[in-house]
Design a protein that fits this description.
By secondary structure, the chain is an all-alpha fold. It is built from 5 helices and 2 strands. A two-stranded antiparallel sheet has the order 1-2. A hairpin with a 2-residue loop joins strand 1 and strand 2. The radius of gyration is 19 Å and the shape is elongated. The mean pLDDT is about 80.
């Protein structure tokens, strides 16, 4: 029985190395859209997030407009990182892990106001982190 010569690791397209990475890249783009949505709602509809007592229209130490612009910026960077993950960039994977962690922490702020939306977004962030950290079984010693 002949063994087939396996192609060099560089010859295998990045998307075929791990399906988890492709899945995480798509979820990173979805999470970016969620963050853009949260950001634009905070910017253009101040009353939407004021259903809970927030000490004078402030969310933590920022007002809703500043909080919205932060999430819009995070969403734009997440879109770029998601596209980079789909292309196969290692730096984009590391950036995606950091941004998904930031999204996890940020959604904890919205947990008392919108628990189901926050939990869903946090779950997507956990899947992104797992997908970007998971080692493919057929590619040994593949690191992030």
């Amino acid at each position: 029985m002949q063994q087939q010569a396996s192609p060099a690791e560089g010859a295998v397209p990045p998307m075929e190395r791990s399906h988890w990475v492709a899945f995480a890249g798509i979820l990173l783009l979805l999470s970016a859209l969620f963050n853009l949505l949260n950001g634009f709602v905070a910017i253009f509809n101040h009353g939407y997030y004021s259903t809970v007592y927030s000490q004078g229209n402030r969310l933590l130490i920022l007002n809703y407009t500043a909080w919205g612009w932060i999430w819009v910026a995070v969403g734009i960077v997440m879109i770029l990182a998601g596209l980079g993950v789909l292309v196969g960039s290692r730096a984009a994977r590391l950036t995606g892990i950091c941004l998904a962690g930031l999204c996890l922490v940020g959604q904890m702020i919205f947990l008392p106001v919108y628990p189901f939306w926050s939990l869903f977004t946090m779950f997507v962030s956990v899947l992104v982190i797992y997908g970007l950290l998971a080692e493919p079984r057929h590619v040994h010693d593949a690191r992030v």
